[in-house]
Amino acid sequence: MTESIAPFWHVTVLTLFPEMFPGPLGLSLAGKALEKGTWTLEKLDIRSFTRDKHRSVDDTPFGGGPGMVMRPDVLDAAIRDAKTRQVAAGLKPGRIVYLSPRGRVLDQALVREIASEGTLTLLCGRYEGIDERVIEEHHLEEVSLGDFVLSGGEPAALCLIDAVVRLLPGVMGNVETAGEESFERGLLEYPHYTRPPVWSGRAVPEILLSGHHEKVRAWRLEQAEKITEARRPDLWSDYLASRPAPKVKKRRARRASAEPTKTTATPDGNGGSHEG
Ligand code: SAH
User: Fold this and answer.
1) How confident is the model at residue 176, as a pLDDT?
2) Which CATH architecture has domain 9-175?
């Protein structure tokens, strides 16, 4: 959480399907940031680095078995070209990530780390994956989106880029949002409510209409803790281990939510608070 986010970020994507980029990232906040030049994207078509007349990027696996494997010589040429172009553009080539189900599972800490670096290269696999020697030769860092198998690295690359870009300065409207969100403090997020205050017979929790910022904060923390404990035992045990003085904090939070709510609600029924 300590890294500072780069003011400007570049990503080079190596893919057999360059037309998939920027794809959804050309729209909405990421798209606007791309237009403004907060981040830049270069896509290189892996097929353009083939030298044979069939333009083949893959071949059968040594040792037999199903499927095809992406050739090391073709990928090597693509990676070298990506670096050359980055240097020519005045960028310092940074880490090279191969999207792969065998990799370290992407989390917010890694997203932040990547957002703090100025340049990233992403290699999208297809077929059965890529020749192992390229991973060794170029010290590729394998990153996975989760324990499932995609047909290619492109959707994973889009997700990773999306998560990074929204952290870049000026991309999200409300800078406050980032610190309170799921994973930022080791907890899942508290539940959200908006107008109308009663919907389908369900009322918004009273405390949120109280306008009492400190109580709202304590209630939200308590909710975030409950949800995390129930849904993600892995995050919960890390949170408990890293929390400075858990017992005192928890008692204070419980006491705050047990106190009767003050009637300081503003006419808009939203407690006048627009934070988070
Ligand atoms: N044979 C491989 C799966 C290949 S899937 C295996 O069993 O591990 C084809 C490509 O999709 C991979 O090379 C990788 O780039 C991408 N891919 C698949 N699942 C992924 C995941 N969970 N995270 C990131 N990339 C993934």
Assistant:
1) 53
2) 3-Layer(aba) Sandwich (3.40)
